[in-house]
Q: What sequence folds into this?
């Protein structure tokens, strides 16, 4: 059977499938989501109303035997930013949908009874909406355990926790990992609330005995994947102990924010260093694993407690920073507890950490109060007034506390990587259609001259958009050339690296067009005053002082594609 689109109407509780257009065969993930949203979603709609469109789109190569290629994009109008959003996640649902031949799921409408919960099932027998009231308010781990009692072990799930059900704008969508734990989150932008607004508690995907997707040029595809894997494994494998290993470097570069970004370095860098987590593997077990089948990078850590029992996965650099150092919480073990709670309640760890830091900065909680922070996350699930503010993110918490120092772009909290030492990354935060997002285009080069900021930011945004459309994880660091080769062998067409870069650029164009129609203005492409006025580093001299003209250049026109662009690696 040819590839299909699943269309779900939650107002009328109907599901239909239709053929995936041939013209879209090189579109997947983020680029596909952007195209659908621009065509089918009113940018002026209420993000939590029936007119918003939730798009679940695996990357082009998901479900194939290309290494590390099974990621999924979730898209919609963000209730956090008011603009377009793509949140990318690992886990197995992307590959499982593609093995069944489903290139995307488009969910529209809203049930009349807002108290009802539904599930969406996809398997070899088709797609169905089912009642799911029995899962109401369940935390993500309990929900997945219960789902595995109902569905075959070969299934994977997308679920929302209580935060998504309460329509909180910091809510994530969890994807189950290879072990069936809801650890991989499409976290940014509050898309969990969009899923909640559709009445969907979960999506269950059972590929059954479906095989991997078969490439057109079978022998060459498998040979290339094998050669690529070998070359990767012979290389430096820079993420082999996980992203938490960058803590010391980030701290050295003044991009390990402390106390709501009032400092760029943390006195707790040693206790939050990922090396402490790696040391714990020796006595407690846990270790590194792949969050989705077929990943050769295996950057995801599994963290156990002192008794050797599973606690959480994965404890990333971003989480150690936002829920750790930025809140002056010094122990990685406390951050692991907070990470688990965020995964359980269904919250973005970046947005939530930023919100807690704002609460602390405004005097609402002591700096470093780890137990208070844990209590607060439980309060999110209970729906207390303060809990709802924290679960709604940095801006909502700033408003509740009447606190002006709120480091966000387009309403979304800044990730760990700080735009004051890394100014070109700041240009990405300002211009990305997503708001502040390190996966949109991170540039860890503090010495880059200002005249190169715009071009460097634009190019990495193009490559990352292309990567997030392919299904590859950014940590594999594929280039446009790599993606072109895989697409050529998979489709049997001669796909060029220029086409891949064009897909990335067109994706950004579609997303910017959506945001313009949603009402964003050029002045929204900027960083908050606190980052322009307050510095980090020696004498607090590192400020974000990039002129507006440079920021505007990054999205105004496309820089001439150069050889370097095609060799640029996606980063994350
Ligand atoms: S590289 Fe890491 S985040 Fe990416 S798919 Fe593999 S384990 Fe998951």
A:
């Amino acid at each position: 059977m040819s590839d299909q689109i699943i269309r779900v109407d939650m107002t009328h509780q109907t599901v239909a499938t239709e053929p995936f257009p041939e013209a879209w065969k090189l579109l997947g993930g983020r680029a596909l989501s952007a195209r659908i949203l621009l065509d089918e979603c009113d940018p002026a709609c209420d993000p939590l109303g029936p007119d918003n469109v939730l798009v679940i789109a695996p990357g082009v190569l998901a479900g194939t035997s290309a290494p590390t290629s099974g990621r999924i994009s979730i898209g919609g109008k963000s209730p956090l930013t008011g603009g377009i959003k793509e949140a990318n996640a690992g886990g197995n649902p992307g590959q499982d949908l593609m093995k069944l031949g489903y290139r995307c799921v488009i969910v529209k409408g809203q049930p009349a009874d807002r108290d009802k919960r539904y599930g969406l099932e996809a398997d070899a027998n088709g797609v169905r909406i089912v009642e799911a009231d029995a899962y109401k308010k369940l935390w993500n781990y309990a929900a997945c355990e219960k789902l595995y009692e109902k569905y075959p072990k070969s299934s994977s799930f997308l679920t929302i926790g209580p935060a998504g059900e309460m329509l909180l704008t910091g809510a994530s969508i969890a994807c189950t990992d290879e072990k069936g734990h809801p650890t991989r989150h499409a976290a940014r932008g509050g898309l969990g609330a969009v899923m909640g607004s559709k009445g969907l508690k979960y999506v269950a995907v059972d590929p059954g005995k479906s095989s991997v997707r078969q490439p057109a040029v079978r022998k060459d595809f498998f040979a290339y994947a094998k050669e690529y894997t070998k070359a990767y494994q012979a290389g430096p494998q820079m993420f082999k102990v996980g992203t938490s290993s960058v803590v010391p470097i980030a701290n050295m570069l003044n991009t390990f924010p402390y106390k709501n970004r009032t400092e760029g370095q943390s006195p707790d860098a040693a206790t939050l260093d990922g090396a402490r987590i790696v040391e714990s593997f020796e006595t407690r077990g846990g270790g590194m694993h792949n969050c989705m089948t077929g990943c050769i990078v295996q950057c995801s850590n599994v963290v156990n407690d002192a008794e050797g029992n599973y606690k959480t996965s994965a404890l990333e650099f971003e989480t150690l920073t936002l829920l750790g150092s930025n809140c002056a919480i010094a122990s990685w073990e406390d951050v692991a507890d907070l990470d688990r709670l965020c995964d359980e309640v269904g919250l973005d760890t970046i947005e939530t950490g930023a919100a807690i830091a704002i609460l602390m900065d405004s005097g609402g909680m002591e700096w470093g109060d780890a137990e208070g922070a844990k209590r607060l996350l439980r309060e999110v699930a209970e729906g207390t007034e303060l809990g709802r503010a924290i679960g709604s993110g940095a801006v909502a918490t700033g408003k509740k506390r009447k606190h002006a120092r709120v480091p966000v772009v387009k309403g979304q909290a800044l990730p760990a990587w700080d735009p004051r030492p890394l100014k070109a990354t700041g240009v990405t935060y300002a211009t990305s259609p997503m708001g502040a997002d390190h996966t949109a285009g991170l540039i860890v080069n503090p010495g880059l001259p200002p005249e190169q900021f715009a071009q460097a930011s634009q190019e990495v945004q193009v490559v990352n958009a292309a990567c997030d459309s392919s299904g590859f994880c950014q940590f594999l660091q594929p280039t446009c050339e790599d993606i072109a080769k895989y697409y050529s062998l998979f489709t049997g067409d001669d796909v060029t690296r220029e086409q891949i870069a064009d897909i990335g650029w067109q994706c950004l164009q579609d997303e910017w067009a959506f945001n313009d129609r949603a009402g964003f203005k050029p002045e929204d492409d900027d960083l908050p005053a606190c980052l322009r006025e307050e510095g980090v580093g020696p004498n607090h001299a590192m400020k974000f002082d990039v002129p507006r003209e440079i920021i505007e250049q990054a999205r105004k026109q496309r820089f001439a594609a150069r050889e370097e662009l095609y060799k640029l690696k996606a980063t994350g």
